[in-house]
């Protein structure tokens, strides 16, 4: 069936709007409907038809579903610009949400969620509540998504109305599609906040796995994505999940396949049996290969994700697919298959597409750099290509050969002669510069090096800066290697040219340096200019292990296509996280009882991803498996005693762990930096945000430059009351660390108050009693620590004494076998805590009573006591 | 995050918006301008289907003369997004009767808006099965505005079917004659070097099914694949029948197939959608029977002449025929004319594709045909670059032949009313990219 809607686009008359208005108010239904269609058509082509708002909304109350949908569409587009008029629609929405027809009920809720006008949102709640419990699954599944929409507009409202709870209940819904949408909505809400909203428990896991079998392909994607965030408890749990997910690899929908792969990779980290892992790799490989026969766009996404498969380019592949395949072939090249790969590259190098040809030539060079034993074969292929005399191939080949020379110095000079034959054809700066570099570097072996260089020098002023710089250096090298008359004249000319007739500061400076060097101490010049150069390395496996980890958990998403971590291109995520922190901050101050709990959650959730030791090793080597090799990833056991503050995956390979402690009467920040990135890091600096105790660094941070793989422990002395944050106290310590190579990292730590107790906190018994009495009872706080168990009073006292919680007195009650301990502590300058602990030795449960003049500090003390007594 | 899209745009080749739909608030309505200026108007178009501009990512696809662009600002599921576009286009095609282009979109914009509202909610793809959507999203209203205004209401149980476990088949279908048609369509991909060594060879096959069955039938399909047969032999405790078995590298199934059951019992069982659909896709790389071998020899005689000899040998059974065989031999751009001698078929020089085209309407099995041609080139003043020699390509269709050797062993239909069905099976092998380097 095909419509004839194009006629609605044809109106371009002047009085159009007026005419439309009339038609919209027509009493004939068909005329009305046509008019609405015209309005939508005008909206589509970008005309402003917002002035018709009232007239369109008037058409809303209709029996005709099609017309209703069109009006709703109009509302979604224009409600924001006419918020006051949008209220007109509310009545109809509410009425529609109770319509006997489930399609209309769902439509009303769906549309209301899309209208982002505050006033409407208020009216949305009641219908939404009803629809979440509708008899019809179609309505329920629409309502589930609507909760996510509402959360995006007004998160508080969602929490207040208890929609999250209802949503969680929907996970147990009998209809798989409702389950899938509920999961999607919960996952989305979880993404925007640090609070734990959606946690997969044993029960939900079972439900999800059951729904996976029955829901639509898209629903399967939602569920699999949610599962990939689930951390299995043990090996059996993981194996169970993998077993249930594996059949999804056979699905025709590529998104399902990739998400299934993601889940399996995640769970595989836990599975220890190599047989199982190998088996899984075998199962995952063929479906991935099959993705390559899908539409080219999907192929591209798959290729970016896989990067693992052996195959060859087709003549008619789109260029982006070809490039990606080339990249993968370089990665796969090994001593065993290099002959075949080279043959293939050579074939590509004779194709028509210039860009692709260049890339192919480069690929040969990269193979040579990567595989030492194959270098010679690569060079012979390059020489064959040079003999073809196709200009851009020759130039590209010379650039590549320069790199090979840098990788294997003094090995392949025999080919220089061939290169020199092509001197005249070079017209690209990069190729020219490369050739000149080769001549300069091997001046002593090229008999006519001076002639060759002289040829270039004739056009010196016209060359680009890149070539000029190379010419300058090469001439100096030549002069130092063959200090005869010819070169001497040449160098004079070059230096003159470079210092007087150029306005490029780089060139001029370099020329001056050479000049001075040569005139003062030619020997020193020799040492500098002809110094041994570091050999270059292959860069084809450049992804950092920590980044790779993160990307693997993001398979199928944009992150894995860009090969960047999500927060480097998604600004929204980070913004919301910060906003939520602030909200929590506010919540804490209202409710001192629970003050530090959310904060500790933050730190643990930050610590979790990096906290699993040996994680890099868990990445399975599918590549090796495909090639029939053994995937023996090296295992690096790491010992960490300090809590992790910035995980390696969040810090582009930099991991920071640390804790506030007291040492020799001073507060210090004990920090540990680990560099698991690929680059050396130096120039570390640290900053602290304003905090309750005004903690700040007393001295600059002294971290020696960190080469990749190294870790370094530092103790940073701290001072108190430097930058005090106003407002009620809390234990949040926000830290920023930067270095010269990376962006600034921000992370949160928790101030442990025990590190702040001063040595002067000891009180006389009498003094203690007096103070206890003077502080009113309203300043006494009591907390039960049900899980803490004191086994020996003496050792507990010792432990507490060690952190400057001083023991005052002890009392035993015979009938209840209760021990009562009295302690005192002081946070400088004069926040005094008087503590009474009551416990039965050997049984769990400690009752703490604290009297202090600063009541808001009590919760912090309870935390400290709990931490101290339970260790 | 499984979000697939924040907005979707349909643009024509000039960059005009044909239709757009914003699903989320996180991308501006003017983002499409960025796409126009940074991708469409530059030579980057076609270099990479996923691009990031500003804070947004653009995923796009071109279908006939329409660009479909998905805009997202979060770390969306790219695979999901692109697959959604593919499926959506299939859906639109099924509504428009096969065509999907600029005109079709303009002519059906109301319908498309309606569908876009239904198939994606807040960026999450929903049910995209045409079968079910057609139950309650119809264009009846447009076609006959006067006939039955009240009847636009969908059947009462439509919503249950949309969300049901069998979300692809509607209930209460009745056919007088119950028939199933199976088409096994294979395409052979080959890349052969000059010397005749096989660089790459694989078969991608699909089983297309046309179902005209009443009620809610359960179907079970048996193939001669190795794993399935072995499993069956185990279950029935008797040795597997001798005969050719094949090993499937990988199989993917339509969403109607019970994957868990396939995994445990290795049987393909399903409740089919009504009408035509693709039941499964498979890929085979081992033990492929090539239908043709090509022996080229191309000699450049001096600057202005070339001699081309191509021998093609058919390797399938002598009782079969290949149809529509075309051999494309590339020649340099400066070809002036060519003279041919062929043992069968017709050959000519086609200047628009720079190829010698040799067409054989009916190519018998176990036969050997040759073409020899003499090509004259124009001598140009410019020094001739060495000619890059693209590969020889072949097109063909071989009915009743499968390059993989796949055979359907049985197709069982079970329905509670117990009707009998007629099953039809056809095989055909086509050339995928069948290339021989010369």
UniProtKB/TrEMBL annotation, chain A:
Instruction: Identify the residues that the record assigns to the Beta-adaptin appendage C-terminal subdomain domain, covering every copy.
Output: 757-870
Which BP terms does GO give this entry? Answer: intracellular protein transport; vesicle-mediated transport
Kindly provide the name given to this protein in its UniProt entry: Beta-adaptin-like protein
Pfam family of the protein (one) = Alpha_adaptinC2
From the UniProt entry, list the residue stretches annotated as the region Disordered. 580-599
Membrane-spanning parts: none
Q: Which family does it belong to?
A: Belongs to the adaptor complexes large subunit family.
Can the keyword Phosphoprotein be found in this entry's annotation? no
Instruction: Tell me which InterPro entries the record gives.
Output: AP_beta (IPR026739), ARM-like (IPR011989), ARM-type_fold (IPR016024), B-adaptin_app_sub_C (IPR015151), Clathrin/coatomer_adapt-like_N (IPR002553), Clathrin_a/b/g-adaptin_app_Ig (IPR008152), Clathrin_app_Ig-like_sf (IPR013041), Clathrin_b-adaptin_app_Ig-like (IPR013037)
The record describes the protein's role as:
Subunit of clathrin-associated adaptor protein complex that plays a role in protein sorting in the late-Golgi/trans-Golgi network (TGN) and/or endosomes. The AP complexes mediate both the recruitment of clathrin to membranes and the recognition of sorting signals within the cytosolic tails of transmembrane cargo molecules.
Gene Ontology cellular component list: clathrin adaptor complex; clathrin-coated vesicle membrane; Golgi apparatus
Mind listing the UniProt keywords for this protein, alphabetically?
A: Cytoplasmic vesicle, Golgi apparatus, Membrane, Protein transport, Transport
Query: Which part of the chain is the Clathrin adaptor alpha/beta/gamma-adaptin appendage Ig-like subdomain domain?
Result: 639-748
| Subcellular localization | Cytoplasmic vesicle, Clathrin-coated vesicle membrane; Golgi apparatus, trans-Golgi network
Give the membrane topology: Peripheral membrane protein
Subunit text: Adaptor protein complexes are heterotetramers composed of two large adaptins (beta-type subunit and alpha-type or delta-type or epsilon-type or gamma-type subunit), a medium adaptin (mu-type subunit) and a small adaptin (sigma-type subunit).
Among PANTHER family, the record links this protein to: ADAPTOR COMPLEX SUBUNIT BETA FAMILY MEMBER
Q: Does the keyword Repressor apply?
A: no
Automatic annotation (TrEMBL), chain B:
State the coiled-coil residue ranges: none
Gene Ontology process terms (BP): endocytosis; intracellular protein transport
User: What's one GO-annotated cellular component?
Assistant: plasma membrane
Q: How does it sit in the membrane?
A: Peripheral membrane protein
The subcellular localization recorded is:
Cell membrane; Membrane, Coated pit
Domain MHD: residue ranges: 177-437
One Pfam family it belongs to? Adap_comp_sub
**Record keywords:** Cell membrane, Coated pit, Endocytosis, Membrane, Protein transport, Transport
Listed InterPro entries: Adaptor_comp_med_subunit, AP2_Mu_C_sf, AP2_Mu_N, AP_mu_sigma_su, Clathrin_mu, Clathrin_mu_CS, Longin-like_dom_sf, MHD
SUPFAM superfamilies recorded for this chain?
Second domain of Mu2 adaptin subunit (ap50) of ap2 adaptor (SSF49447), SNARE-like (SSF64356)
**Superkingdom of origin organism:** Eukaryota
List the PANTHER family: AP COMPLEX SUBUNIT MU (PTHR10529)
The entry's family comment says: Belongs to the adaptor complexes medium subunit family.
Name the record gives this protein: MHD domain-containing protein
